[in-house]
Amino acid sequence: xxxxxxxxxxxxxxxxxxxxxxxxxxxxxxxxxxxxxxxxxxxxxxxxxxxxxxxxxxxxxxxxxxxxxxxxxxxxxxxxxxxxxxxxxxxxxxxxxxxxxxxxxxxxxxxxxxxxxxxxxxxxxxxxxxxxxxxxxxxxxxxxxxxxxxxxxxxxxxxxxxxxxxxxxxxxxxxxxxxxxxxxxxxxxxxxxxxxxxxxxxxxxxxxxxxxxxxxxxxxxxxxxxxxxxxxxxxxxxxxxxxxxxxxxxxxxxxxxxxxxxxxxxxxxxxxxxxxxxxxxxxxxxxxxxxxxxxxxxxxxxxxxxxxxxxxxxxxxxxxxxxxxxxxxxxxxxxxxxxxxxxxxxxxxx
Amino acid sequence: xxxxxxxxxxxxxxxxxxxxxxxxxxxxxxxxxxxxxxxxxxxxxxxxxxxxxxxxxxxxxxxxxxxxxxxxxxxxxxxxxxxxxxxxxxxxxxxxxxxxxxxxxxxxxxxxxxxxxxxxxxxxxxxxxxxxxxxxxxxxxxxxxxxxxxxxxxxxxxxxxxxxxxxxxxxxxxxxxxxxxxxxxxxxxxxxxxxxxxxxxxxxxxxxxxxxxxxxxxxxxxxxxxxxxxxxxxxxxxxxxxxxxxxxxxxxxxxxxxxxxxxxxxxxxxxxxxxxxxxxxxxxxxxxxxxxxxxxxxxxxxxxxxxxxxxxxxxxxxxxxxxxxxxxxxxxxxxxxxxxxxxxxxxxxx
Lengths: 350, 350
What we know:
The structure is a homodimer.
Chain A: H1 2-18, E1 36-44, H2 53-75, H3 80-92, E2 113-119, E3 124-131, H4 137-147, E4 152-154, H5 155-164, H6 178-190, H7 194-201, E5 214-219, E6 225-231, E7 241-242, E8 252-254, E9 260-265, H8 267-272, H9 275-286, H10 290-305, E10 309-314, E11 320-321, E12 328-334, E13 340-345
Parallel strand pairs in A: 3-4
Antiparallel strand pairs in A: 1-5, 1-12, 2-3, 2-6, 5-6, 8-9, 9-10, 10-11, 12-13
């Protein structure tokens, strides 16, 4: 425990440096605007030492593509909800991330996908858990939010709703990737969940075994915030396990008065800590700014609970915080000044 | 909207009166102690005008039985978790409430049960959604919390876990009651959810159509808080709809540092408002006392969102708050002085 705390302290120190918006200037050359977007592609054991240049370049390119897709939507004057969907769908369709194509396998050799979305203007929300045949779970979460009287749907019922509403349906095998299948086999051989497997697997498949929940938060020209999260869950998951990604308040939260937040990490701890809503609550009730609140919740509270992971967050002023207490988190943003930043590693990397 | 606000004001005024602990003294004669328990059996359109004396007596007797079962556990020096389970299981087994036996029907004519529990000492939590064959969903939620690495399980996976752990399994028809079956038929004839049906059904089946999520919060001799909630959801529910009862932070939350909370009402609004955690956050970050925090969240925030329902809540000092913005809420407590209070109605009743 004291080792873990020491570890956290190092990352806290790092985070304070890295989270200052624009400290790593990789400017997109875009002009100043009143919109912003932040994305993540998962947090975990991501180390430069075990990442090839090619893999890193592939992640950077895909994160940039997702950021630009979301930012283009915002630049056209469309909503933060549209931008969140656009950015997340790029990542859902990419085998690099644990969402949509490239989702991890359950113990039964299937893919069960979870997603949620929240509109900061209305605090309306939508979520789906355990869907197997909907190409874009984040799109279904939005349909649940906007067209149904409900917030959350699960399993085959959610799929029936998707079909009724004309969403693209696919075979479960649509989400197959060899890499994730191999990860399942290794996990099953060791009969443990991927969260424990990672450390063993790193030499074989650099930094990407359990990692890859995706998320986006955005601020549009109308001053409205939105947040969304999409995931395949945990490799070798059993018993219909539901993580934090489809839980409003845990994995996703948005309220114009406070912030938009999307989380990634060991979901159980994010549920117990009601992490996304806890950040908003500190802003709301303790009067903290976004960076202070997000930092306190991830570096102190989540760590105290024993949880690992991170969040991306954004408020109406355009402030951005991306704290995490793992070795790395795939992340990036385009801020209100048009600066684009993409980062992967913790203290040792950029 | 202005009518609704006026309505809420009346209930706020009422609530301030009714929620003062012990104002209705129905003393159990127990001696002073350092334990307390609060329960609810659902909030909604509960009016004295449409309730028979017999029905009212049945509810009062069952609420008293549940309170005494939980309080006995606490008096023996056992944990608040044990007390929450004992109280909730009495109500799960009673056809009077929408949990366990007496659960409402889905659109497919089945029962799908949700429950969650949280330990205020460790902030560990367990939840199950959409289980059909587990006699006591709250017992399964506890097993998930204590024996699995997960917080939430759903559907057939959760049932498999229950079976592996030796919980009592039953046929889905075990939960059947004629009253709920008739409610489904009426709802389907009108093709609307029960939340809309209630107003129509009141003359036929006094005040009990959609009502009846059950919950308990307790404080044990060790000073530990716990909270639990169990429900059958919404009559005629479709698409694997999940309400707030199995969502940690929405329907259930417990933290020794703040309070134990269990909610009941129109679940979608409790999820969007992250209602249970919001009460805890106001205590934690705004420094409010329990009664002020619970009142503000239910009477102001929930109302602003357009939601209806209530919560029971308890803190380590033994303070109790039971605000609701509906006509009534089945509720009761035994406080630290051993006073037992059971209440059903809003302003017009006791």
